[in-house]
Design a protein that fits this description.
4 copies of one chain form a homotetramer. Chain A has 186 residues and is mainly α. Helices cover 76% and strands 0% of the residues of chain A. Chain A folds into 2 domains: 47 residues, Orthogonal Bundle (Arc Repressor Mutant, subunit A); 125 residues. In chain A, helix 4 packs parallel to helix 7. Chain A starts with a helix and ends with a helix. Chains in contact: A-B, C-D. Chain B binds a DNA duplex (21 and 21 nucleotides) through helix 3.
Chain lengths: 186, 186, 186, 186
DNA sequence: CATGAATGAGGATTCATTCAT
DNA sequence: CATGAATGAATCCTCATTCAT
């Protein structure tokens, strides 16, 4: 039956992500992943044809996940200020609530043997549709997509990785939101 | 006694950096590094006590290097606009001219088993001294250091990683410079 | 799934013992053991978690084996003289017939990183039960267990290690038996 | 000057012995020995041509040493009972006072790649001269040298290795002395 | 005589993967 | 579908030894 298998594959995915947060990409061997997932190494090959295949598949899924999470925070009817606030805070919340997945994606996206598989573009197109709409209405300045992407996401990741105390984080995040509202809104 | 070969250690460092750009942290095994450097695997242990020790040492050096490179582009007497321009373009040029080192540092800084060793704070303090001076004079808005760091460096890294054609890159970079000048200058 | 090969594990054990007789504890590397056993080095780790684990396990088994061998030579209804004769000669025969195992145990028992694992006490308790019974009946003098153990086993090992010709050995062994009968029997 | 060199060689010897007590024959590598002795690995090759040569030389010296220690406890004019007492207690004291050397010799003497170098016979000849003299005078029973050696030394080593508390040891040692006096004296 | 860098063989162990069950 | 033993290449690292200084 499907139920058992689905659940086993989920355990494998979670194990990869958890292990890579703890020990880095180097530390994630098939046998460790299997142990962490409570399955046998050979079982992993039932679901994936190779380690590389497995990593890419999980990486792809996780990459998507962060932007799907983000989209749920965003409503069509938000004005530009609200939209920027939602993107920044939503993305940040994602990094906190899904620390493991975030760390996993961060590592994979910087590894030349894995990263080519997924491009951020594919994941963020929906968000850019929304931004483009506001640019057309003259609410958001007509910067290029590259520039928008550069100032919207990497700074949030930076704050997420370097966060210390809750208060600091809250203040820094608020400041970043205001900065980007000033910068992007006409 | 044979004298310690400074040049040999340099070759090892370059080999690490080159190999990690090509094959990622996973692919950088001691034997591959040795081969790339033209030394014997055992020789590496004359210069470093372990692989971890080696990676940290080279990571530390490379991290510093990027900011030393940056500082050379900056002059005390620049005004705020020039300073921002120099930081953005200087940092970007660094990523282009030292692609290998940049990729190496990017990967290490996201790997939980290596990154704790070096903090960006330690490397960028000189730049922040310059920014603080301008903030005091009222030339640069009084955002927190975290926010400044978040909008100054990660967006440049983003453009560096995602650059395609030369023209595009030039345009995007110019746009980013203007954005940050608008954002940061009173 | 392939069933765990009991016979393969036996081959590994024999290989360890044989190799250590020939080349000493120093010479018993995993790869040599594997070669001697006709298995692959990695296969050893299917049966043992580490070299240390393997050595202890085999050492423990071999230690027991010598005293089980001894017990088979001994009958409940023997009188004191017969018992001493049987212990001395039985133990000696063991060292001759299982030279490899004997040499292996001798080496392990003197190595500080292995020996703490097995105590002779655990192996000889049955023999001491028999001796205690004779002590109670007044057939054997009431020396302490330590003294009994000291004069019963180490001298036999000494003769076993230093034996030259068959005749000599036979004579020395007979002499030792008589000495201990005189010494221990009331 | 000879002084420096002599002292350095002494340090090497002590290091070997100390290290082998702690970590067994396996653990005594040239580099560890050098570190323990405070010299450089290459320096060891000034004094010995190879590791094997070094081990044999130190083993030979240490073997002799135990019996020289023993001889100092023995006086020509002792009667048979005193002689046996002196041998047993002298040898035991040696194992306690020179635990490191004793453990080193014990390990080497059981290792087939080292032991052939030294035979106990060579070291104990003086003691046997004394015993033979008493045998001629009819004070000590005319057992063969092999039997004498088998009951005189190995039991002491056994007690030395298996000693726990001071009281126990004292009692066991006294008992062993009395046993051997009864056994060997007419 | 002492040194310390260099070496290449070999150390123990883990790897990703396969295969028979 | 799941398993777990088997594999041979690869892992990091230490070994004894040599050599130029």
């Amino acid at each position: 039956m499907r139920t058992r298998d689905e659940e086993k594959q989920q355990r494998i995915k979670k194990a990869i992500v958890r292990l890579i947060l703890r020990e880095g990409i180097n530390g994630a061997s098939i046998s460790k992943i299997a142990q962490e997932a409570g399955v046998f190494p050979a079982t992993i090959y039932v679901y994936y044809t190779s380690k590389e295949d497995m990593l890419s598949a999980v990486y792809r899924e996780c990459s998507m996940q962060s932007y799907r999470f983000l989209m749920r925070r965003i409503a069509e009817e938000m004005d530009a200020a609200q939209l920027i606030d939602a993107i920044i805070r939503g993305y940040f919340e994602y990094t906190v609530e899904h620390e493991e997945v975030f760390s996993f994606v961060e590592q994979c996206s910087h590894c030349p043997t894995i990263s080519p598989i997924v491009s951020e573009k594919d994941c963020t197109c929906e968000i850019f549709d929304l931004l483009h709409a506001r640019q057309k209405k003259g609410e958001i300045r007509s910067y290029s997509d590259a520039s928008l992407a550069a100032v919207l996401f990497p700074p949030v990741r930076y704050l997420a990785v370097n966060r210390r105390t809750l208060e600091n984080t809250e203040r820094e995040l608020g400041e970043l939101v205001r900065m980007l509202q000033v910068l992007l809104i006409e």
